[in-house]
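Annex B. Sample input.
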Amino acid sequence: MIQAEITEKFPCLDQKYADIKTPTFVRLVFNYKGKEYAIERNPEYERAAQRGTGLTKQTAGVELILPDGKTSYKDQRSRKCNK
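Annex B, continued. Sample output.
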């Protein structure tokens, strides 16, 4: 199933079943030449505001985490993935 189909069939899966304070993301951990790397990706979603009450929009983002724990690539975009 491609991303657009998943989003279309389950548009509110995280909002419906997870606590509003729970971050929505996926983490892929892999080894390359004996070293462990990770990629974390989060969709655009509403989360609890850090100050005050109510909700705020968390922008979509992706990070490449190197074996030493440093982030090599970080991208946050305010766009929806539709294909």
